[in-house]
């Protein structure tokens, strides 16, 4: 079975929790026994990664202490990751509690419709209207990228024929 794929619509309950589909629960239990890291994404969604995936993402930087001592941009990156990430556990009922500050920032308010989106290395929780906007951005980007690729191919073909 593919892990962390597909999308499901659900809602945030009155306690700020989101219930995952059986498929998503199974993926988290198989990959990390339900131990996850929540991380607020700049695109406006909440990423939920198995802890080892999150740590792998963060280890991508070599010599972080040295960089933190010399780079304001790097310190800001550390602050962003540190302040907008937290450990959580998927409950036995397949729910995760979203901290109030994250809910307010991302529009994941109790009663609101959300979309749990598979992102292959974890899932993202999107406010439903923001997700619809993101899908439009993705589609526009893919069409524009395809048109540029086709134009480049045509230019290559014309150059080769000369």
């Amino acid at each position: 079975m593919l892990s962390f794929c597909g999308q499901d619509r659900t809602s945030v309950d009155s306690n700020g929790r989101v219930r995952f589909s059986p498929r998503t629960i199974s993926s988290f239990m198989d990959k990390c026994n339900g131990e996850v890291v929540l991380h607020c994404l700049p695109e406006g969604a909440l990423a939920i990664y198995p802890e080892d995936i999150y740590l792998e993402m963060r280890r991508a930087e070599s010599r972080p202490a040295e960089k933190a001592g010399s780079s304001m941009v790097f310190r800001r990156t550390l602050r962003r990751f540190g302040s907008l990430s937290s450990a959580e556990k998927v409950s036995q009922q397949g729910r995760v509690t979203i901290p109030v500050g994250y809910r307010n920032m991302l529009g994941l308010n109790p009663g609101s419709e959300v979309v749990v989106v598979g992102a292959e290395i974890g899932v993202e929780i999107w406010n439903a209207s923001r997700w619809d906007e993101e899908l439009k951005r993705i589609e526009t980007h893919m069409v524009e990228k395809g048109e540029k690729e086709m134009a480049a191919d045509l230019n290559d073909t014309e150059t080769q024929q000369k």
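The helical segments are 22-32, 51-58, 64-70, 72-83, 100-106, 128-161. The longest helix spans residues 128-161.
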